Amino acid sequence: MSVTYDKISTRDAFGIALVEAAREYPNLFAIGADTTKSMGFKPMMAEYPDRVINNGIAEQNMAMIGAGIAASGGRAVVATYAPFASMRISEQIRTFVCYPNLDVKVISGLAGLSGNIEGVTHQGLEDIGVMRSMANMVIAVPADAASCTVISREILKYTGPAYLRIGRGPVEKVFDENYTFQIGKANLLDDAGTDVAIICNGCAVARVLRAKALWEEAGIRARIIEMPCVKPIDEEAILSAVKDCKCIVTVEEHNVMGGLGSAVCEVVCEAEKPCEVTRIGIDDIYTESGPHDQLLDKYNLSPEHIADVVKKAVR
User: Fold this and answer.
1) Shared domain check, 195 and 151
2) Residue 168 and residue 192 in contact, taking contact as beta carbons nearer than 8 Å
3) CATH number at residue 234
4) Between the CA of residue 53 and those of 29, 33, 98, what are the distances in Å?
5) Segments forming the whole domain that contains residue 107
6) Do 27 and 122 share a domain, yes or no?
7) If DSSP codes are grouped into helix, strand and coil, which group holds residue 221?
8) Which tens digit of pLDDT belongs to each residue from 183-239?
9) pLDDT, tens digit, for every residue of 235-252?
């Protein structure tokens, strides 16, 4: 199966949506911690330089500036790399954004393994698990540039705390301009059968779609569900899969603990008749440096590994 990559990265796609939102909302400000250029702020900087703030490598200050803007009636976007967006500013986001339910969007770059050559310090593999535990927080994970543009627009329209996970470079193309997104809703990509339901998000979606031919060779027919919104999660889509399918396999570019797979298990275990769930993600380890695609292959997200796990789950 041939692989087509996006022409732009998800952070560039976010930048397109950000400048559109800046035009619509005169009270929208974007704050970076020496990340205004690397996190997609360039288009907004060109049009509205007075509403883009670079406070230097001081992420906690960045979060508090965003909280102050929102507390004063503005709309704030704060952006840095995933480990810092989820952990270095976790107390500020919890206490000064989520607790008062302020309109601050946390944009998380180099998420998953897309920090690639920067290594463990810049690869964000625990971020969803951290952010998912905070009340009032919405969490969205685009699969590619087209979906990121649509999701970013909706997240920037939303009033309240939100965490948007984006990557570094162009990724495999999955969707086009017809992509749709609604907070708290999944997208059914394939309803080919009821042997298994595959629930995935982020760059794992493209790899699941490439794995499809491999499990179909074994006679397995699957339902494929994209879950771009991890919180609030689409419980109806999950419970429908529990009812209709023999088992569920989740696939994500995140530590296998605390992310999409854990969120799905929480819903499944409270179903009237739960089914078996198998989680695919990065093992509970620290990964190494390398090109993004090679890291995805090494850490459980190759199409071949996904197909093998699906086959075993169905058997």
Assistant:
1) no
2) no
3) 3.40.50.920
4) 8, 9, 22
5) 10-165
6) yes
7) coil
8) 999 999 999 999 999 999 999 999 999 999 999 999 999 999 999 999 999 999 999
9) 999 999 999 999 999 999
